[in-house]
């Protein structure tokens, strides 16, 4: 296994995936039932001029308000890639797509299809974008690319539940930093699948205990008392994902019931 594809966090199990090329993935909506498609989009070779030529007027207007050129490129790349994927899955042209926002600000596709609702979520880190797409269930995905330094000890005291603190404390010191980033992707993915972001009690959602198992589950927990919980699912499943580059990521999705089978996951490299 090359250094590029080696697991970034030895202490935390990740689900190994075969990352296919774009033409090896079928965009047929009927094949998304009970399946999640993951896409990695690398912005390293694209510049702002190329991205700006493919962005909508509203996206360009928002991009102009982002002062940092790197963050502006990441925002435009994320949106351009998202609209490309939604066009491929829906069969609509770019001008017909209607991307709106739910009650809690989560992006959603307002167009309907005969196959069902196309649900998606995406995350950006440095020059990488990770998308998730499925039918008729909420998704959340989060990504952290390495190297990245965080105050792992401080985060463990404020962001982790007691059981998570215990699991994290048992790790060798050399692995704690990256393991905390793995945990953070789970916390972020949970916030995104519920639609509340990180506006919840992170230390009430227990997602990071059985570290040698990539899969994890939780009920809806940690919501602020003032949160509008209408239409937030009650049961979720998540998985830590092995990436084709140096970083960590987690996917979470809505489950309909406790005994439901896990969704299949298909992964691909996106090139426009």
What's this entry about, in short?
With 272 residues, the chain is α+β, with helices and mostly antiparallel strands. The chain is built from 6 helices and 11 strands.
Polypeptide structure, described:
The chain has 272 residues and is an alpha+beta fold. It has one domain: 4'-phosphopantetheinyl transferase domain (Ribosomal Protein L22, Chain A), CATH 3.90.470.20. It is 27% helix and 25% strand. It has 6 helices and 11 strands. The chain has helices at residues 48-52, 57-64, 69-90, 152-159, 162-169, 173-194; strands spanning 19-21, 35-42, 99-101, 107-109, 118-125, 128-135, 139-145, 215-219, 235-241, 247-254, 264-270. It has a 5-stranded mixed β-sheet with strand order 1-11-2-6-5, covered by helices on one side. A 4-stranded antiparallel β-sheet has the order 7-10-9-8. The chain has a two-stranded antiparallel sheet with strand order 3-4. Strand 5 and strand 6 (128-135) form a beta hairpin. Helix 2 (57-64) packs antiparallel against helix 3. 35% of the residues are buried. Mean pLDDT is 91; it is low at 1-8.
Shape: globular
Low-confidence stretches: 1-8
Q: Supply Rg.
A: 18 Å
Largest sheet: 5 strands, mixed
CATH level-four homologous superfamily name: 4'-phosphopantetheinyl transferase domain
User: Order of SSEs, N→C?
Assistant: EEHHHEEEEEHHHEEEE
Number of strands: 11
Strand order of the largest sheet: 1-11-2-6-5
CATH names the topology as: Ribosomal Protein L22, Chain A
Q: Which second-level CATH architecture applies?
A: Alpha-Beta Complex
Structure classification = alpha+beta
Q: What share of residues is helical? A: 25-40%
Percentage beta strand = 15-25%
């Amino acid at each position: 296994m090359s250094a590029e594809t080696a697991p970034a966090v030895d202490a935390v199990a990740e689900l190994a995936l075969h990352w296919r090329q774009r033409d090896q993935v079928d965009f047929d909506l009927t094949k998304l039932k009970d399946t999640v498609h993951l896409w990695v989009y690398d912005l390293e070779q694209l510049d702002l001029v190329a991205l700006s030529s493919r962005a909508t007027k509203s996206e360009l207007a928002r991009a102009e308000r982002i002062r940092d050129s790197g963050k502006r490129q990441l925002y435009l790349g994320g949106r351009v890639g998202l609209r490309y994927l939604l066009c491929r899955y829906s069969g609509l042209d770019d001008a017909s797509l209607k991307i709106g926002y739910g009650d809690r600000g989560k992006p959603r596709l307002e167009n309907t299809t005969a196959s069902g609702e196309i649900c998606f979520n995406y995350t950006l880190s440095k020059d990488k974008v990770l998308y998730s797409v499925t039918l008729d269930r909420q998704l959340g995905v989060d990504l952290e690319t390495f190297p990245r330094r965080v105050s792992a000890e401080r985060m463990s005291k404020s962001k982790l539940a007691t059981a998570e603190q215990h699991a994290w404390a048992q790790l060798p010191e050399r692995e704690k930093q990256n393991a905390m980033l793995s945990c953070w992707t789970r916390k972020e993915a949970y916030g995104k699948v519920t639609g509340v972001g990180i506006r919840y009690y992170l230390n009430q959602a227990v997602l990071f205990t059985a570290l040698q198992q990539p899969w994890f589950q939780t009920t809806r927990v940690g919501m602020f008392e003032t949160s509008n919980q209408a239409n937030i699912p009650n049961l979720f499943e998540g998985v830590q994902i092995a990436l084709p580059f140096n970083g960590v990521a987690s996917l979470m999705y809505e489950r309909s019931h406790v005994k439901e089978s896990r969704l299949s996951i298909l992964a691909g490299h996106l090139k426009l």
